[in-house]
Amino acid sequence: MPDDAPRPPHRSCGMVEAHEMLLAQHPELRQVREDLEARTRSLLSLTPDFRASGGVITIPVVVHVVYKTDAQKIGMDQVTSQIDALNRDYASKNTDKSKVPSVWTKLVTDTGVQFVLASKDAKGQSTTGVTYTQTTVDAFGTDNKVKASGTGGADAWPRDSYLNLWVCNMNQNPLGYAQFPGGPAATDGVVIDLTCFGTKGTAVSPFNLGRTAVHEVGHWLNLIHIWGDTNDCSGSDQVDDTPTAKDPNYGKPTFPHVTCNNGPNGDMFVNYMDYVDDDTMVMFTAGQVARMHAALDGPRSAIGTGGSSSSSSSGSSGGSSGSSSSVSSASSQSSTSSHSSASSGPGGSSSSQSSSSSSDPSSSDSSSSNSSSSDSSSSDSSSSDSSSSDSSSSDSSSSDSSSSDSSSSDSGSSDSSSSDSSSSDPGSSDSSSSDPGSSDSSSSDSSSSDPGSSDSSSSDSGSSDPGGGSRRKDRRSRRRRTIGKKR
Ligand SMILES: [Zn+2]
Question: Which is it for strands 190-193 and 176-178: parallel, antiparallel or unpaired?
């Protein structure tokens, strides 16, 4: 497969194409995005030098491996290598950040975000955080077909609880794509070509350091390409500390590359949001990190556990470990049983938060108990309340519009009857338990199916990790404190 395919001369990302397609299908998203942008500006204006200092936010990840041939069925070690790469780079622990020209070294910033393979699906069943789905599709494009069982892919798990990462054959055209915050739940997440996923197995140079996912997850957290997606210097990534740039840089440029009167330093081509090779993109800036946290305090406020103090996050903060992990709840789960199909196994704990989050859009509001009420797209509040509390308001509002459809669309996915041999397998070593007795009959067949189901809330409540909700609240309040601090 991948190796005999013609290699593209350089990176390309399907983000813009996918986004335009989405806007065509959902015109209302344009307003949602504009509102979110206004809200982000408002939040950032209060904290001009906001940085991740309120503890690490850990995001549970589910990796959907959609394969046609055995060679495309990547192993658990490759999946883990991708999680490791994300954690390395999002913590700014990549040693190759030494490549950053000295003029920008002070801008190199730890995002304060980490990732862990999910240890429980939306029904509270143990999972490796990886699903396998065999497909008849030769290669997927940016049309989201890989995200639905009905079109040869695997259904998304609830996006308020999981970052969905799909890995499939895209023939490197493009290398991957993501969905910005605010879009439909059923297609929320990131898609990566299997030749660019992780650091081993099917990953091939020059895209074998796991940075296609680093880049795409940046989009998922609302980052824009640093040249602003125009080719005439008029575009902006809405971040102040990245220089204006004319268009993408490819390969391995030499410093400086001056465009748009941005001399003497030129384009910040060492940034993860440019188009250079994996070994050349090595940093996020403080401004980008602030923008990511505005998304995590806003439309993505439901996902993740926060704070280094919280038990779960500590489990993952180790970076890699994604799988196995440490986390206490993981062990308890494994003993219980695992879902017979597909996944199984250990993982981070995190899943808990799905309890409130998924399915129930209002839940996210409740935590913040913000007045703004239902105003889906909202925006409004943002401008007015420029006072302080707005971080909370931003959460509620924007998230609902999106999450509301999430519940609906999610539920739909559960029936993914398709059964396409999906599950059954593999990667998951410890599928050991697989006790059929496990309640969640519904899912049975297709691996992915089950999680998407809306009932997650109920089932979760019973599950082991009651602290989820409160932790999330902790994160909010902690972040608010951080924001208020104005460093
Ligand atoms: Zn991109």
Answer: antiparallel
pLDDT in tens, 297-341: 889 999 998 743 333 333 333 333 333 322 223 333 322 222 222
Q: How many angstroms does the Cα of residue 104 sit away from the middle of ligand 1?
A: 21
pLDDT digits (tens, 9 = 90+) for 43-62: 877 765 543 456 899 999 99
Residue of higher predicted confidence among 4 and 184: 184
> Whole-model pTM?
0.67
**Residue 259 in contact with residue 266, Cβ under 8 Å?**
yes
Convert 360-371 to b/e letters by CB count within 10 Å (16 or more is b).
bbebbbebbebe
Ligand 1 centroid, distance to 225 Cα (angstroms)? 6
Q: 174: CA distance to ligand 1 center in Å? A: 10
Dihedral of alpha carbons 263, 265, 271, 275, sign: positive
Distance, in Å, from the CA atom of 275 to the CA atom of 270, rounded to the nearest integer, reads: 9
How sure is the predictor about 177, in pLDDT bands with cuts at 50, 70 and 90?
very high
In this structure, how many other beta carbons lie within 10 angstroms of the beta carbon of residue 61? 29
Q: How far is the CA of 273 from the centre of ligand 1 (A)?
A: 6
**CA dihedral in degrees (34, 39, 41, 46; nearest 10)?**
170
The verdict on whether 20 is a catalytic residue reads: no
Q: Which residue has the higher pLDDT, 248 or 350?
A: 248
Q: Which residues are CB-contacts of 327 (< 8 A; sequence separation ≥ 6)?
A: 119, 311, 312, 315, 316, 346, 347, 348, 349
Q: How far is the CA of 219 from the centre of ligand 1 (A)?
A: 7
Helix (H) or strand (E) segment spanning residue 192: strand 190-193
- Cα 3 to Cα 72, 172, 193, 203, 209, distances in angstroms: 12, 11, 13, 10, 17
Q: Which residue among the candidates 17, 28, 34, 216 is catalytic per the annotation?
A: 216
